[in-house]
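Pasting as-is:
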Amino acid sequence: MHMLAIDIGGTNIQFGLFQDGELLFLKTIATPKEAILEAMIAASETFLSDYQADIAGIGIASAGIIDAENGVIKKASNIPSLVGVPVKAEMERVFNVPVFLNNDANCAALAEGVYGAAQGMSSYVCMTIGTGIGGGVVLNEKVVNGRSGFAGEVGHMTLFPGGLQCPCGKKGCWEQYASGSAIKRMIAEHPDGAIADYSPQQVFECASDNAACQAIVDQFIDHLAIGVTNLQYTFDPEAIVIGGGVIDSSAYWWDKFVTVLDEHAPIEVIVKQAQLKNHAGLFGASLLIKNEGV
């Protein structure tokens, strides 16, 4: 029997047809501004019809804060029109199969455990460094959602009390110091105007020959290492898996990061680079179905 996996992002929605853990077919549509659920249902019906597939369940990964038990998105800045919509209930009504909904970072964490860098581990943290810092916590092979769905929002750990303002409303959040947007801010604030037009990727690439770029990379690495050390003390996982867009430039900073991390942490911290890229959420969504015994 087939499984339908869906990954809802602010830009695109991916649909994957799985059987026995293998992705057989893939489809992508642009995420509409409004009527997202209606577009998702229509695209799913067409997708399943095209391949004449009967499904046993549907797994959905979505950006935002998720009420996994009730299958509702509680908060999502990139897809606000889907907030509060009964996604699980409506999909179950239309397709008459069990439907499971969870945060995309949590789904990516599940996928790394089965197909990626955390294979063979039962407890680990998967964090993504992009515009901000997201994360998923897996303990004893189960994603931790928390009471209100905020578990794994590691980017909002306070790194510097009273520090930089975060869009979440707090000040001093980790993602304000160790994310793609943090690097952009550091570039804009640096007194060396010669790097003002540099992208984060260019800063990483030029760090070995440019003192201004090196200073920014060093600050990013230091703040990243502090937060990762905090995660190790909080969860004591078997490993911390790091993915997201910033990891694409890891060839320029990863080795130094590991060295600095060893200096920060008096306990062993095992860090690994994520192996799954754009389809991590989709593979994780398919695992939501499997984990529920469907």
